[in-house]
Amino acid sequence: MAPSRRMAAPVLFFLLLLVATEMGTTKVAEARHCLSQSHRFKGMCVRSGNCANVCRTENFPGGECKAHGFERKCFCKKIC
Fold first, then answer.
1. If you write DSSP's letter for every residue of the chain in order, what string do you get?
2. Could you give the strand order of the β-sheet that contains 33-37, starting from the edge strand earlier in sequence?
3. pLDDT per residue over 1-21, tens digit each?
4. Could you tell me which of 11, 21, 27, 56 has the fewest CB atoms within 10 Å of its CB?
5. Which residues are within 8 A (CB) of 56 and not within 5 positions of it... i.e. 6 or more apart?
6. Which of 25, 52, 19, 54 is nearest to 40 (CA)?
7. pLDDT of 31-67, one tens digit each?
8. pTM for this one?
């Protein structure tokens, strides 16, 4: 009877620790980006850096080149 009581305390402590760590974990959701075709970018989009600079003039934090059919266009993006 004495050995089982000695084992009960560490096992109980371990279970409580396990439950506490499971409750403390949080999942971080990834932000979604909304895309809008640039109105000021002219020509075929080759470098996303150029696209991002034009998008900043349109009050977007950034932009990227994306294929739209057979041509590549500049799309401005922001967090939705």
1. -HHHHHHHHHHHHHHHHHHHHHHH--PPPPPPEEEEE-SS--S----HHHHHHHHHHTT-SEEEEEEETTEEEEEEEEE-
2. 33-37, 71-79, 62-68
3. 556 667 767 777 666 655 555
4. 27
5. 62, 63
6. 54
7. 888 999 999 999 999 999 999 999 999 999 999 999 9
8. 0.60
